[in-house]
């Protein structure tokens, strides 16, 4: 399994390729707020570990293994954002919170969160009760 740092790179490369059709070292560095030299070192490691294929001056291509992990990492990120939104976390806190927790949850926990989100979406009346309770709790704090 990739390390949390490796996951960040794979996720970012996957997103760039999905959005632009390609991923460049400079784009990865900008999006992750790291130096291009750090990106190059990580890309070489990811290439060695068969997550991607990197040819200097030619580009980056995810291997099937890298693409599969990239898809799963993007799913995890989007699911956690959706979950935090559903439970009433303030919009301005969601991204930082997801970044803080996404690498610390097991895939089993991620799958259970996915099940809960699906349940709440399917059972709107239950979700509405939760929102009502949340609103009443927040009103009492004021």
Report the biggest beta sheet as strand number plus sense, adding barrel if it closes: 2 strands, antiparallel
Secondary-structure content class: mainly alpha
Strand order of the largest sheet: 1-2
Kindly report how far apart the N and C termini lie: 46 Å
**H/E topology pattern:** HHHEEHHHH
Count of separate DSSP helical elements: 7
Q: Radius of gyration, Cα only, in angstroms?
A: 18 Å
Low-confidence stretches: none
Q: Helical amount among residues, as a percent range?
A: over 70%
Strand content: 5-15%
Mean pLDDT: 94
DSSP strand tally: 2
Name the shape in a single word.
Answer: elongated
Structure report:
The protein has 142 residues and is mainly alpha-helical. Helices cover 75% and strands 6% of the residues. The protein contains seven helices and two strands, in the order αααββαααα. The chain has helices at 4-20, 25-32, 36-48, 64-86, 91-101, 107-122, 124-141, and strands at residues 52-55, 59-62. It has a two-stranded antiparallel sheet. Helix 4 crosses helix 5 (91-101). It is elongated. The N and C termini lie far apart (46 Å). The model has no long low-confidence stretch (mean pLDDT 94). Mn(2+) 1 binds at residues 8, 99, 102-103. Homodimer. Mn(2+) 2 binds at residues 11, 77, 99, 102. Residues 1-63 form the HTH dtxR-type domain. Its main location: cytoplasm.
